[in-house]
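Blinded run. Sample ID left blank on purpose so nobody reads anything into the name before looking at the predicted structure. Input follows.
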Amino acid sequence: MGLKYAYFPGCVAKGSAREVEDAMRSVIEALDIELVEMPGASCCGAGIMNQANHRLQLALNARTFAMAEEAGLDVLTPCATCQGNMYEDLALLLSDEKLRSEINDVLYRTCGMRFEGELKMRHILQVLVEDVGLEEVTKKVINPVDFSVAGYYGTPMLQEGAVSEDDPHNPKYFSQLITALGGTNVDFEGATKSVGFPSLLGREKTAMRQTGDVLNDAKQEGALVMASACPLSHFNLDTYQVKAGKASGKDVRMPVIHLPEIVAYSFGYMADRYAYLKTRAMVVQG
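Blinded prediction complete.
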C-alpha cells in the first residue's frame, strides 16, 4: 500500500505489554505498512507528567514531533493515551506561537532541533479505517472474528480533533472495524467512559469501580470479549479485573485484548493465541 509512518509505540508496548508490539508487527506486515523507528523518543507523559511540569512534557513531545518531521512523516501509535496526550500538546503548540517559540528555544539549545508542526498524530484505529480502508482490511481477513466484541476506546483519544474524522462524542470507528473483521459489534455505554487510569495510582477503589462498571456494561450487552485501543486502560480492564469485580460487586469476567491483537488474529497471525482467546471466552461464558 505504500503507507509509511514514524512509529511511537508508547512505553507499555515496549515494556510490560509486548503483545501489543508483536501484534503491530503482524498487522503492518499484512498491510504492507512501513514504520520508521524514532530511537530515543521519550515517554509522552501519559497524563501524569503535565501535572508536575507541563513545559517539560511539551519539550519532550515537541522533540518527538521534530524527529518525525525530519523524516517527513506523521506519527502512528497503538496507544489511545499517547494519541490523546500528544495530540493535545501538538494542538497547544500550534495555537500558541509564543509558547512554540519558547519550546523551540529549549529544543535547539539541548538537541539542535526545531518543531514546525508539519505532521499529524495518528492512532492505529484511524489508520486502519481512513488510510488503509475497511474494504482492504476485510480482504486480509483469514480468521473471521466469529463472536461478539466490545470495543473500548480509552478517553484521552476522544477529544475534538484527536479522532480525525470520527465523532469524539459518538465514535463509530471501532464498531466499524469489528464488523470488517467479521465480528459482531457490541454497542455499550462504557465504550467511551474512563476506567480511572492513572487514578489507579492514588484512588484505587474509585478506579476499580469505574473499571467494573465498564466491564459489566459490556458483558450485560452480550460481549464475549473486549478489545481495547488503550494499552494503559488495559491494565485496569485485564490485570486488575478481579479487584474491579470486588470493588464494584458486579460480574466483570471477560477476556480483554488489545486492538492490534484482534486485527492480527483475524489476519491469520498468532493462531495459537487466537485459539486460546476463543477457548477462554467460551469458558468464561459457561
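Unblinding after everyone has recorded impressions. Residues 134-285 form a domain with the Rossmann fold fold (CATH 3.40.50.11810).
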